[in-house]
Amino acid sequence: MNWFTRIIISSVAVLIAAYILPGVNIDNFWTAIVVAIVLSIFNVVVKPLLIILTLPATILTFGLFLFAINALILLLADYTVDGFEIDGFWWAILLSFLLSVLNSLMGNKDKPNTKKELN
């Protein structure tokens, strides 16, 4: 799946999540595209640094601290993009969870089946 397709899928996921969660507001589809682009940039640049810096907390919480890192990335995107609002940290946690579920449901359509049939 190419980058453009992932951006469109993420944009649709952001719109669906904003429709479901009352603490998340987004103006229109173009804002959702900008949010998806900003999130992809932050996930490449900022997220690895945060994971390295918070590795002890992530290990102590058995990986659950990654939800907090994802929420911080979303709040950073909220601060960066006009027309995209998250009402607080807990809404960002819920949005992070919902976006990961929606992206995994919508984005895994083109992967080949790697299971081998048993004879």
Features:
119 residues, mainly alpha, two-stranded antiparallel ribbon, 71% helix, 5% strand, globular
Distance between the termini: 32 Å
Give me the secondary-structure category: mainly alpha
> What is the averaged pLDDT score?
87
Q: Taking Cα atoms only, what radius of gyration do you get, to the nearest Å?
A: 16 Å
What report would you give on this structure?
The chain has 119 residues and is mainly alpha-helical. It has one domain (3-107). It is built from five helices and two strands; from the N terminus they run H-E-H-H-H-E-H. Strands 1-2 form a two-stranded antiparallel sheet. Helix 1 (3-20) packs across helix 5 (89-107) and helix 4 (65-80) packs across helix 5. It is globular and about 40 Å long. It starts with a helix and ends in a 12-residue tail after the last helix. The model has no long low-confidence stretch (mean pLDDT 87).
